[in-house]
Write a structure and sequence with these properties.
Layout lengths: L6 H6 L1 E2 L5 E4 L12 H6 L3 E3 L2 H11 L2
Antiparallel strand pairs: 1-2, 2-3
Length: 63
């Protein structure tokens, strides 16, 4: 039987054309009023997934 892609993971992780796994930083969804502008700017953008997690995430994405 075929493996199914983990639907929660496919919403959170993007795969680049070179094969890198990219994710959003945590902490920019709510309670932003008390966080400094410096902190919210630092949380912007995407970062590469940690190498320790990438093997497991690739399996969850079916790559």
């Amino acid at each position: 039987m075929k493996n199914k892609t983990h639907s929660g993971t496919k919403k959170r992780i993007k795969v680049t054309s070179t094969g890198k796994l990219m994710r959003e930083k945590a902490g920019k969804r709510h309670l932003l009023e008390k966080k400094s502008s410096e902190k919210t700017r630092r949380l912007a953008g995407e970062v590469e997934v940690a190498p320790q997690d990438s093997k497991r995430l690739r399996k969850m994405l079916g790559i």
